[in-house]
Amino acid sequence: QVQLVESGGGLVAAGGSLRLSCAASGRTFSTYAMGWFRQAPGKERELVAVISRSGSTNYYGDSVRGRFTISRDNAKNTVYLQMNSLKPEDTAVYYCAAATATAGFPIKFRTYEYDYWGQGTQVTVSS
Hints:
Elements: E1 4-7, E2 10-13, E3 18-24, E4 32-39, E5 46-51, E6 58-60, E7 68-73, E8 78-83, E9 92-100, E10 116-117, E11 121-126
Parallel strand pairs: 2-11
Antiparallel strand pairs: 1-3, 3-8, 4-5, 4-9, 5-6, 7-8, 9-10, 9-11
């Protein structure tokens, strides 16, 4: 069982930056691939960024590539999402999630592949 707690959301002006954190409980954090997803009102939950167990492999959604950076610190059981050049369309609830991963499939792309989810943190970008 893994419990995930996000923090760092808030209100920011367009062009600004935020850093989200997701703290995981348990001693098996390094065995999970991690992901950040977001959901805006009336829209489906979408992939933002995902990272492998070691942190050596990552992937970004098209809308955030080049602006967001995912990273993890396995010693601190924490995954981060650095968000720069924020736009109003980035406004959403951001969720972190953990997925069982293997060497052959180090990262996961779809919500149904994730086993554990945090409660979410609101990010609002004003224009």
